[in-house]
Amino acid sequence: MQEKTKDLLREELYERVWTTPMRKLAQEFKYSDVGLAKLCHRHHIPTPGLGYWRKVELGHKPPRVPLPAISRNGPYSIRLVLRSVPVEKEIAAAREIPVIAVALNVPLSHVQAIRSERLLRNARADEKGLLVPRKGCATHLLVTGAQLPRALSILDALFRAVEERSIRVTWSKEEGARLTINCASVKLELCLSEILNSRPHVVTPEEEARRKRDWAWSPPKRDYEATGSLRIVLLGDETTSVRHTWSEGRKKKKLEESLGDVVAGIEPLARAIEAVKEERERWHRQLAAEQKRREEARRQHEEFVRRGGVITKAAEALRQSQLVRRFVITVGSTPKLHQLDTESLRRVHELLAFCSEYADSIDPTCHLDELLKNFEKPRSWYDP
User: Fold this and answer.
1) Contact status, residue 137 vs residue 176, Cβ threshold 8 Å
2) 169 and 184, same domain (yes or no)
3) Are residues 77 and 96 in the same domain?
């Protein structure tokens, strides 16, 4: 799936959102309207509410919600990923749709289909009536006992057709391992399941009596009914929401007739998942860069405040030293000194000598090396 990018300033995207209806703008950017709204919300861009465009059509000029200010160094640029073809259309436009024949009532040949049959041969039914292995797990096959032979034949034919295209089907022996279809570097999970109808459960008198006897027991909340219709779902891992479903119903063709579409859709789906992962990784890189920028800005601000504190403290010390020196000059030049006896005069001279020494000790201009050392950034700030 090919994709391009488009960079818009935050203010520019805000202007486009408020001058073009969201659905039309989303089509231009190859987004869904919900996806574009989420993008705007992530960057704190307000969007028009319900009824806004109807008022515009009627000739009114409804007020806009102002764009909130965000502190940021430099322009606020937003990158949009423009997908040229949605995954559903790319799957539908697959060039080669192979014809895959499903042989019923014949022995299975693919190793993973045989392993699935062995796991579910004596399986138990869960509360929905679906087969669950007594040992191990087979999350790729969720059907009732009546549909098991048919489902196994479909899987057998599908696995063989997939591997003819050099796409591997793997299922590890580890406990809890899931069956995956490996296309290039992408692992797709497959699930063939039976479609169930559900309805709220009506508590019977017997169940009500049992609930009164056993307080820890409770009746089921819903009843499930097997329809006999099957579907195949291909999806990526839990980090992506990309998936595609082929199902059969009253007006749709049988699943056996859709296996060619499933096989042809594997590669486009894998490319779509790769694109989603690349976009997510790019977003994480942008987020990490933004966090790094904010952290650096915070550190620079803290360093600015710290240096300001050093200068303020030095200026206050200089003022104090100047006051002390002025005190020394004033006391040393007072006429009252000539009226003192020798002992008192000696003590005054000791006082003034101490004041001069003290003024020098707190005067930052007498200790420039120490002032520069305190002013410079601490060594630990340079460490990674």
Assistant:
1) yes
2) yes
3) no
